[in-house]
Amino acid sequence: MQPLLCTDAVRVESYVGPKDERSLADDVLDGLTRPFKELPPKHFYDAAGAELFDRICELPEYYPTRAERAILEERSAEIVATTGAAELVELGSGTAAKTRLLLRAMAEAGTLRRYVPVDVTEAMVLECADALVEEFPDLRVHGIVGDFERHLAHVPAPDGPRIVAFLGGTIGNFPPGSRRRFLRTIGKLLRPGVDHLLLGTDLVKDPDVLEAAYDDSEGVTAEFNRNVLRVINRELDADFDVDAFEHVAFFDREREWIEMRLRARRRMDVQVRKLALKVAFAPREELRTEISAKFTVDRLRADLAAAGLELRAVLTDPEDLFALSLSARK
Ligand code: AVJ
After folding, report:
1. What is the value of pTM for the model shown?
2. Measured from the CB, is residue 227 less than 6 Å from ligand 1?
């Protein structure tokens, strides 16, 4: 592996290449030719999508980011004390905004050694590596530019007691079967008896509160949802009339997840030129763009157990909106 960057304190390796454009092409080809059209949520996040997501996190209706941050502010010291963590591996690290709270607690406990961010956006990994070694003089950063669903095998062997953090509630984007499979894959990064998973999960609550979080009054989430069509237009030379799709978000009370969809306002034929594909939408036909599962502690424990992990602690905010949990490999 030829590292992208290698200094005394920072090493960044990249595993993203031309194949990754393929994954959008494959997902569009599969997803838009199904009887019920569907696209995976990971394609929301180009530069514009990442910016829209940052705006979502600031919305009064979107509580998960604030609630998770509040838990980390209150409990990071305790998390570090109970795990003895020297190393933090973070899946989908982004700007590492919330991570700083954990790194600071590790530095204060005198255990901080290494941070291993895993993120698809190269600039994010490089910039946060730079800023963090500046902020924490003894820290080493081993960054992985890659897709956490495909490149976890490139995470280096542990260097001291490890926390693998998967924050924000992104585990909720996985449907139940693949969720358990992915948790099992994460488990392989953990040594039994030594390492821990720190998992952020949104909790089941009043459907009105949930639905408002995914259908805000300013329409930011609607723009975020429609952004996936702009990504396809640009990357695959498609001609979606983006504004001809209406944002739909609802809580499925049976499955206990939020679903986001895009509903065609009229009949449409869309050309996806790079794939030589024509996609027809009937009036009011819906395209599913995201599921975001909400958890009870019992379901969380069951999912972890099915993946070979044992739930050790659940930390929540004062309003019980969101949970951070610690678990260990069985
Ligand atoms: C980044 C997946 C945790 O599911 O709440 C926010 C994405 N979608 N608003 C979530 C999202 C609509 C978010 N995650």
Report:
1. 0.96
2. no
